[in-house]
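hiii so um. not sure if this is the right channel but i have a protein structure encoded as tokens and i wanna go backwards to a sequence. like what aa goes where. can anyone help
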């Protein structure tokens, strides 16, 4: 995963709930954070299970993790000013791109 995704993750996940304003977060920032969290969840799962996974399945799994992270972020960080579906789409695409860079 790239530096920017890790940076996005730190910025979004370390922010206090309710103290975010529209100018601070964007769909790209939140999507990058969710994609990073999804890749981390996948890598943790792989370490735990020790099983190889089909690349196509893995990309879809990670995209699903990213979508779930967006749901969690919207619930816990008060991001109602952002378009949730746009953020989910961006997170899924970033997660797939991150997987391709890391494993293909």
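sure thing!! here u go:
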């Amino acid at each position: 995963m790239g530096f920017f995704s890790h940076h996005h993750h730190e910025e979004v996940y370390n922010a206090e709930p309710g103290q975010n304003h529209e100018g601070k977060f964007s769909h790209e920032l939140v999507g990058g954070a969710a994609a990073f969290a999804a890749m981390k969840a996948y890598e943790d799962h792989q370490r735990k299970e020790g099983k190889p996974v089909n690349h196509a399945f893995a990309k879809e799994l990670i995209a699903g993790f990213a979508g779930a992270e967006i749901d969690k972020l919207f619930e816990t960080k008060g991001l109602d000013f952002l378009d949730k579906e746009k953020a989910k789409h961006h997170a899924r695409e970033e997660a797939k791109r991150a997987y391709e860079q890391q494993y293909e």
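oh and The mean pLDDT is 76.
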